[in-house]
């Protein structure tokens, strides 16, 4: 039998230049130089990827050389990562996030949000009732290092001072930064704990509410409810809302892991994760606002009515943004 | 004739179906790779924190404590970003990998073959709070406990968080809780190299090795691929064993100066030509037992 040129020789020879070109683009992209690509090169990448994928299909059908197929598989996989990994331009993604994805995800979590809010409120009522009936409870609800001397034994003047004092106004933005980072860390934890079937998230919501209620009870006993309300409202409307949303996102994941319904557990968890992740990204944005309100605005604004007004209007704005139907979103 | 599997660890081989409907084989990152990548990242974070603190301290000393606020903010924000968003920010990039993962040639992809959204990456790394940072905090706390009751609670808590930490060891796909919830997994980046085609035609061989149609009909595609593997690895012992087996089967009497590599290469080319020709007529011969 005569050795002649094989058909499968001609096939790579005709396409090898394209493969090499794709390979060199990928090597540059993998070295982190995707930003330096020209527009033409960015458009070329998906085309070369598609031609590599079709080469692979052809090779699987007609070529009997294992090394060639392995090469094309590896090349197509590498290219696939970049073609299906890139996600549009940043400002477009941000626009979609704020106009559509974030409010939609928050609305999708309304049941969990209501539950988390209810737990917080209920725990606050319990904390209030406990401390009102017996001030000794205060010590077990609020650790001393968090209380900063605001305990039932403190004088009314000390308590009032805690609401308006502390205007070491030099470090306000540092204070705001500290509050943001601290709150963000806590809400990330509240979210992550949701993975354990949602229970730890619920417990954290409850603990949060208890502290709130205990603090209210102490101030109410001195007739300072209105003043404490203003102190809390100015940042709390945003911060507590964000905390409740973080807990709700955690619960959604826990619920999906525990009760996947008709889907497999993995699918259910991944779907819940997408919604919850969008909400969490927004929670971090809310906490930036809360940090500024708490660290700067609360330190500079001492009038109770103004504090109340800012708190109430921020709550109304958040609620309208999340829950009011909008034409643009459809 | 035996050839090792192409994938590094058979248990980690998966298929990924692209939106074009083509199945691509991928290899998941092994546990060792993942641990290596994570430790590398932890070292980088720790080093960056130390550098950040030293630089902030020096800057504060240089410009005086009065206007130190900017430095406090930078330090707080830097610490926070490194602690909470080091992984997220790197994985949001086009390479979808932290420096540690890049070092180990790994990257994060969506399990369903589609795009991996920013929210998935956020979720994937937010869950590190319970996988890594909670156990670390508890470990730190366990050093400070005095009473035996506290010690028991800390131990129980450590055992509980240990479930999350060792989660990847207990599922086939090496998923962390974060991967599970984000719908992602960590795969190896393949290294493609286009190898020389072994069946390069040459007129000289055609004269020396003139196989009869019966001789080239002795084997199928499976044996062809094994032969290709043997020829690419060029292991002397295997080469002579394989040459002997093939000569025996097809009844080939070697010329006195005939080398094994020459013989095997020529037979490989002839066999491939024959099988490809049959393929054109719609007949794929799987192996030597396939005689239809």
Task: Tell me about this structure.
The complex is a heterodimer of chains A (330) and B (292). By secondary structure, chain A is mainly alpha-helical. Chain A is built from 13 helices and no strands. Chain A has helices spanning 7-30, 39-62, 66-83, 90-108, 110-133, 137-141, 144-147, 156-164, 172-193, 199-220, 225-258, 265-300, 304-323. In chain A, 43% of the residues are buried. The mean pLDDT of chain A is 84. Helices cover 58% and strands 7% of the residues of chain B. In chain B, the strands form two sheets. Chain B has a two-stranded antiparallel ribbon with strand order 1-2. In chain B, strands 3-4 form a two-stranded antiparallel sheet. In chain B, β1 (13-17) and β2 (23-27) form a beta hairpin. Chain B is elongated and about 95 Å long. Chains A and B meet through α1, α2, α3, α9 and α12 of A and β2, α2, α4, α5 and α7 of B.
Helix-strand layout with pairing:
The complex is a heterodimer of chains A (330) and B (292).
Chain A lengths: L6 H24 L8 H24 L3 H18 L6 H19 L1 H24 L3 H5 L2 H4 L8 H9 L7 H22 L5 H22 L4 H34 L6 H36 L3 H20 L7
Chain B lengths: L12 E5 L5 E5 L3 H33 L5 H24 L6 H5 L2 E5 L7 H9 L1 H15 L5 H18 L11 H6 L1 E5 L14 H6 L4 H4 L4 H13 L2 H15 L9 H21 L12
């Amino acid at each position: 039998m005569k050795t002649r040129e094989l058909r499968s020789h001609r096939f790579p020879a005709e396409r090898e230049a394209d493969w090499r070109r794709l390979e060199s683009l990928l090597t540059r992209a993998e070295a982190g130089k995707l930003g330096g690509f020209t527009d033409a090169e960015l458009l070329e990448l998906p085309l070369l990827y598609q031609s590599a994928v079709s080469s692979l299909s052809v090779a699987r059908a007609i070529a009997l050389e294992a090394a060639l197929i392995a090469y094309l598989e590896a090349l197509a996989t590498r290219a696939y990562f970049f073609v299906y990994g890139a996600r549009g331009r940043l400002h477009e993604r941000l626009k979609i996030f704020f106009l559509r994805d974030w409010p939609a995800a928050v609305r999708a979590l309304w049941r969990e949000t209501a539950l988390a809010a209810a737990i917080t409120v209920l725990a606050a009522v319990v904390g209030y009732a406990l401390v009102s009936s017996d001030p000794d409870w205060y010590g077990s609800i609020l650790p001393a290092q968090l209380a900063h001397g605001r305990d039932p034994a403190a004088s009314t003047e000390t308590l009032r001072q805690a609401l308006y004092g502390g205007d070491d106004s030099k470090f306000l933005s540092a204070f705001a930064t500290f509050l943001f980072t601290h709150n963000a860390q806590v809400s990330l934890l509240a979210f992550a704990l949701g993975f354990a079937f949602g229970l730890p998230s619920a417990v954290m919501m409850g603990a949060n509410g208890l502290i709130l209620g205990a603090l209210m009870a102490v101030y109410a006993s001195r007739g300072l409810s209105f003043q404490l309300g203003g102190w809390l409202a100015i940042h709390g409307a945003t911060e507590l809302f964000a905390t409740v949303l973080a807990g709700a996102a955690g619960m959604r994941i826990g619920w999906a892991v525990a009760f996947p319904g008709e889907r497999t557990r993995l699918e259910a968890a991944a779907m819940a994760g997408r919604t919850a992740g969008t909400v969490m990204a927004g929670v971090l944005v809310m906490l930036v606002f809360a940090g500024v309100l708490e660290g700067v605005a609360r330190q500079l604004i001492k009038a109770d009515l103004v504090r109340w007004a800012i708190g109430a209007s921020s709550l109304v704005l958040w609620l309208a943004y999340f829950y009011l139907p909008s034409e643009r979103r459809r | 004739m035996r050839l090792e599997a192409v994938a590094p660890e058979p248990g980690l081989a998966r298929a990924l179906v692209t939106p074009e409907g083509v199945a691509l084989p991928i290899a998941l990152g092994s546990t060792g790779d993942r641990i290596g990548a994570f430790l590398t990242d932890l070292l980088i974070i720790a080093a960056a924190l130390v550098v950040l603190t030293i630089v902030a301290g020096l800057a504060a000393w240089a410009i005086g404590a009065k206007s130190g606020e900017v430095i406090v903010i930078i330090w707080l924000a830097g610490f926070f970003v490194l602690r909470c968003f080091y992984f997220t920010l790197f994985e949001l990039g086009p390479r979808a990998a932290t420096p540690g993962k890049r070092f180990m040639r790994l990257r994060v992809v969506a399990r369903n073959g589609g795009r991996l959204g920013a929210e998935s990456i956020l979720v994937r790394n937010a869950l590190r709070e319970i996988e890594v940072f909670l156990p670390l905090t508890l470990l730190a706390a366990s050093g400070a406990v005095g009473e035996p009751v506290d010690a028991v609670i800390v131990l129980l808590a450590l055992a509980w968080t240990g479930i999350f930490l060792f989660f990847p060891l207990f599922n086939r796909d090496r998923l962390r809780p974060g991967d599970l919830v984000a719908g992602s997994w960590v795969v190896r980046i393949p290294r493609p190299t286009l190898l020389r085609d072994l069946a390069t035609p040459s007129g000289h061989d055609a004269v020396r090795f003139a196989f009869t149609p019966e001789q080239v009909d002795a084997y199928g595609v499976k044996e062809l691929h094994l032969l290709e593997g043997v020829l690419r690895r060029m292991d002397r012992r295997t080469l002579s064993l394989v040459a002997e087996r093939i000569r025996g089967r097809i009844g080939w009497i070697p010329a006195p100066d005939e080398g094994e590599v020459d013989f095997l290469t020529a037979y490989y080319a002839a066999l491939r030509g024959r099988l490809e020709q049959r393929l054109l007529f719609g007949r794929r011969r799987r192996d030597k037992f396939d005689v239809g």
